[in-house]
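Suppose you are handed a protein chain with no further information: no name, no annotation, nothing but its sequence. What can you learn? This example shows the usual starting point.
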Amino acid sequence: MIEIPLLDLHITHTCNLTCESCSDFTNHKLTGMLCLQDAKEWMLNWNKKIKPKKFLLLGGEPTLNKDLVEFLYLSRQMWRESQLILVSNAFFLHLHPDLGKSLKNNDVELSISIHNPSKEYLNKIKSNLILCKEWNKKYGTKILINPAHKKWRSIYKGYGSNIMPFEDNDPESSWKNCFMKEFDNANNCYQLHEGKIWKCPPIAFLPLMAKKYNLSEKWDPYLKYEPLHPNCSDEDLIKFFNKGAESVCGMCSAKKIYMENSKNPLLSVNESIEYFSKL
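A reasonable first move is to predict its three-dimensional structure. Written in structure tokens, the prediction is:
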């Protein structure tokens, strides 16, 4: 068994937000819900081969999946020693009455991503932030406020059928400046998708974009990417997780390009945390 830094699982591609240049392309109105049976089969194919330090449930917006609570129990059953994290924008936490208790029972941390920390935005999730505080007080639920807007990067150019890769012709620099370092101090954000493991979100979910839109031929080399299959050899397994920069890294910018996520007056990181603490 090989230990890896983290592994993500989309339990839905649907999201209520449309954050520009989303690395998972969910701002392009992708749809689809993962069922528990498929997720269990995928995990069973891998949980004897790899051991992720962190296993993240996300999307899209994972609280839009009606089976969210069951996914927490399944994830803990499959990854007993991993740090489990549920990543949510908090808009629909109230749809799952047993969520607070199940987070505690499965030792799952709730990471709330703040994508637009204007007062108007925060007021929309205020009631659910208060609910989180109640869970913390009642169950000791671990809650983290993640000011994602401060780290938001441009991953590609354009929108819909007009998206284009950066192609700065410097995959090594793209790798060194990978946007994932902003979030987890790691270049690789491995994705468990369609039963296979992919290097990062953009390369994993690009085929979904190709199914929905008539993409430029510029994307053809990246659409030929081969993920790691569960029937891989031990040699292939080790080789995959030891890879650094690859040609597909060239789809992202070789430089760090940060985005202005909102035209509204923004709260600072400290103000965002203070806002939560005063609720």
